[in-house]
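Need tokens for this chain, all 257 residues.
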Amino acid sequence: MNDEPITDSFNRYFSLTEPRTPEEREAAYRLRYEVYCREFQFEREEDCPGQREADAYDDQSWHCLLRHIPSAFAAGSVRVVHVDADDPIPDLPMERNCRDSFFDVPQRPDRLDRGSICEVSRLAVHGLFRRRAGEQVSPIGDPAALDLTPEQTRVFPILAVSLFVAATVVCVRENKRHAFAMMEPALARILRRTGLEFTQIGSKVDYHGERAAFYIDSGEAHASLMRSESLGPLCTRLASSLDGGTESSAPAASPGP
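Here are the structure tokens for all 257 residues:
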């Protein structure tokens, strides 16, 4: 039995980078297309020319991209959207699309200082890294083609959590205290067990599936993560990766089929 800490396994098999230019972000756009358009059909393929899912918010976001080191395959991505005074779009995506679902609470984004808010958005983990052994082969490729070992497969369930940890690191780095996300309540419960205590601030709506608006204080979230015996080291390593890495430091390879 392998007793290696899950965070050490994660860091052996995955690398985190922060793509900053449109060219560097192409892998994230193509990954989002596979997940949001082809797999879940949250977006129409005809609205995503060039097999890439992108929108106007991408230019006012910080992006994180996870790659599977052995294959250089784009495994997951997330962005943190900001609405600073000089940004062309003044509202967060959730404000534009789900404002009517917000509860009458102080933590609403429209009741907080605009310079202190952000939204964790467009989180995507490729289907090849979410499927369990024995499930139907992905329509976009056979997982066996990646030659994944059982040890590597053991790490994959924490990819979504790792992307939220990376987003938390970005929020703290950029002084965005108030972070929001549209997510399934079930995901919020999973994140709560890791120390990311999201508070639901809106009713469930049909928005890329049944989701609700959630809020978290990024500083408190970061402090909670750092107290975690398992996720504290991961948080530190992801912060180090974001400090020194950009997409250009990742292996040169296709972002996926």
